[in-house]
Amino acid sequence: MDNLIALLIAAPLLGALVLLLGGRRLDKSGHWLGTLLAAVSFVIGLVLFADMLGKSADDRALHQTLYTWIPVEGFQADMAFRLDQLSMTFVLLITGVGTLIHVYSIGYMEHDERRRRFFGYLNLFVAAMLLLVLADNYLLLYFGWEGVGLASYLLIGFWQHKPTAATAAKKAFLVNRVGDMGLSIAIMLMFTTFGTFAFGPVFEASGQASEGKLTAIGLMLLLAACGKSAQVPLQSWLGDAMEGPTPVSALIHAATMVTAGVYLIVRSADIFDAAPDAQLVVTVVGAVTLLFGAIVGCAKDDIKKALAGSTMSQIGYMILAAGLGPIGYVFAIMHLVTHGFFKAGLFLGAGSVMHGMNDEVDMRKYGGLRKYMPVTFVTFGLGYLAIIGFPGLSGFFSKDKIIEAAFAKGGTEGWILGAVTLLGAAITAYYMTRVMLMTFFGEKRWQPAPDADQAPSAEPAAEHAAGAMPHPHESPKSMVIPMILLAVGSVAAGAVFEFAGFVEWLEPVTGFEHGHSPVSAAAVTAATVAVMVIGVGLAYLQYGRRPVPVVAPRGSLLTRAARRDLLQDDFNHAVFVTGGTHLTRSLVYVDHSLVDGVVNGTAAAVGGLSGRLRKLQNGYARTYAVSMFGGTAVLIAATLLMRAV
Amino acid sequence: MNPVNYLYLAALLFTIGAAGVLIRRNAIVVFMCVELMLNACNLAFVTFSRMHGNLDGQIIAFFTMVVAAAEVVVGLAIIVSVFRARHSASVDDASLMKL
Amino acid sequence: MSANLAAYATSTGEAFQFWVLGTVAVVGALSTILMRKAVHSALSLAGTMIVLAVFYLANGAYFLGIVQIVVYTGAIMMLFLFVVMLVGVTAADSLKETLKGQRWLAVACGLGFGILLAAGIGNASLTEFAGLGTANSAHGGNVEGLAALIFTKYVFAFEITGALLITAAVGAMVLTHRERTERARTQRELSEQRVREGKHVPPLPAPGVYARHNAVDIAGLLPDGTAADLTVMGTLRKRGQIRDVSTEAMADLKALEQRSEERLGRDRDEEEATR
């Protein structure tokens, strides 16, 4: 069974290689190959899962070492994989949701000339993501980490003929680089502290290392997680990443890649457990992002960007839970999986809506779509109910647990975190209801397509010639079926996890403690439902009772700020771009005046001296003869002097 | 008469020749001055030969003459070809490392 | 006589000869470097060299004395003269110094050098001649003595100088030789080319036309009295050795006209007087 682990990665990797190197002859069949190989990986995952269920909890972890990757004396990196319950969860999520989204993309990307390449990138992503979660040491994890970054870059910029997409890809890549720097520093710190970066030895040794070093490693790992998972302060790329094709947004920027940060923190649980300061920072980052994303999500009119804000916020929940320590790790992962289902479903629904609306993304120009797209409406609605935490659906179970755990943190912190998570739940209910109402309810606010050229090339030009009114229709089966399956997951996953023992499943890997909440579980549940109802009610009052204006009203100061992503880009520009420019200018000034001054001064001195010496070197043989003659005279004088002395 | 007088004469002629090399611009005259310097040396060698009573000095003077003859042949050939190329025999004209 | 010349002490005659001929040698050397015309320099140098030959003889170096006259004065200096002729015998050099400070430096270096050399000689410990009597008579004479040394002790140097001489001879030929890469054009071809180019269709005019000179370096005069440089051969033209007599000719012509006018005027006066 151990040997199957490498096959998990090999299948999509083979797909990526074949599709990207195969050339045009695969244009007709490439998407089938890509989907098949993703499915193969999923099947292997299921086989391994079945095998794992058959073992006792303590020896479920599998290890496979392919070869020594970097064999340097004192620096050994193995191409080694670890498949334990945590990795297994991710493998099933990645390959399962991944396969569904491959199927969805067959329909969604049907008219794109570069579909084969798209599937190649998707397979590359799946392979890299699997490598990330299966790696048995931090260096290999870093390899996968960079691999998903590359795939993310390629897929965000897939329609690179659009300047916005190209810029968004670059932005994502650059912001991720900051986080990646954190990961590489963390790995270096580990190597100097423990002399290794393999998971097992590092976790074993993390008890003995000094807390200061562990805190440093933890903070660096958090920085990495912030970059990859779009947490404050490295959150700015996620909204722009929505420029990529919608399946990409669903798979990479909602369900899997952006949760890699949560995986990293949960995987490094032993380090964080020994560094409470780092843990506190993790929870703060999670709490801030939770509210930040939620507020941004409330103000966006672009359906994908609203969902992106929501993603940010939900990952904030996970990070917060991961920062709570053993009382939260399991719930972070649980919420991660349920979020993977319902958020992927929501994105696919959004993609389906865009598909029917001439790639219009502005929700103010939707309205009343439930009659035209019934299946999309139902699946999107189930995802909606799941995310707001409607009792019985998956989001209810996972979010409720996180809120409970936040209260269980204890002390003032516990109260603050609990309040923040509750507030987040209310805002979540508000903005998701807003999305739902603006898209599927109310009167039609459809607008003719402004200009066919601006639409991405996913659709044939004939379907949305300039000025044509959209005629919404249900999407093809290849798109609808994945949406239905994900909706089923959104509905059932929470209950299944709750009653099938997700906590016991993960406990051997992450550890688990029952938090002692100052508030009873029932009270927390009641409060959660209550704030959800309040949020939904507020949104209904604002968007359900009154007609939605097509042109966005000016809005309050907060609304305007939230539309601009709470000024994140302005902040980055003011602090880093302007600051960097000033720093560079002053450095250039120093370079010009001081460094160049020294260099140029030396050069000028040498030049001046040479200019004078050059006069001796005038090319006239007679001048040289004089110096020879004078030299001879001096020699004679010296000889005579020597003899005289 | 003090035999050293011959040496003084040789030194004087040598110095005059050297000064000529430094002062004159005509390559042919410069060359003649070089010959003058060589002859001054020869006079010194011959005097030394007589002073020391052996013939080695004369041998050296003899070789000097042979070498001077070779030098004159090549040197004059160079002057002639330079003159052909630039219609001038001035050593100052050839102050650049190109034509 | 030879015994005397090679004796330890120097005779009064030799001392007289030294001072007289030494003066001549120094004057010759000075005029070598101070004469404006290269040919004068060469002649002065030749004189100095002959004086030096006499000194060689006086010092008992008979072979070298003769070689000095035959090889140096006879061959090398004549070679110099050939080159001087080739370059232009009439060209006089300007003695004005063009390099800044060169003359002062040269004089300073020369004086310093000379004084130092004289000081060195003044310090010399050997103030007497050992004489060449024994050395010359060991092999039966000066020439035999030199030959014995050259072909025994200095035989390698001698061979190498032989190689040097051959190299120099070949080198001189290589330096001055110009390979004709194409056939020399015939007179017919040259005239055809002239016609084809349309320039100077008839042969170039001979020098001295309309002039009262027929030397090759005097340009012919055009009808208006100006000199036509074309009539002088190219080599002289390049050297700038054209003698222009046009002003003289014009002046002559003017004088002729004036004289004839005077004559005619006088005739007229006489006629009027007779009338």
UniProtKB/TrEMBL annotation, chain B:
Keywords: Cell membrane, Membrane, NAD, Oxidoreductase, Quinone, Translocase, Transmembrane, Transmembrane helix, Transport, Ubiquinone. Its main location: membrane. It catalyses: a quinone + NADH + 5 H(+)(in) = a quinol + NAD(+) + 4 H(+)(out). It comes from the Bacteria. It is found in: Cell membrane; Membrane. The keyword Translocase applies. The chain crosses the membrane at residues 6-23, 28-48, 60-83. InterPro entries: NADH_UbQ_OxRdtase_chain4L/K (IPR001133), NUOK/Mnh_C1-like (IPR039428). GO terms for molecular function: NADH dehydrogenase (quinone) (non-electrogenic) activity; quinone binding. GO terms for biological process: ATP synthesis coupled electron transport. NDH-1 is composed of 14 different subunits. Subunits NuoA, H, J, K, L, M, N constitute the membrane sector of the complex. Belongs to the complex I subunit 4L family. This is NADH-quinone oxidoreductase subunit K. It comes from Streptomyces viridochromogenes. The gene is nuoK.
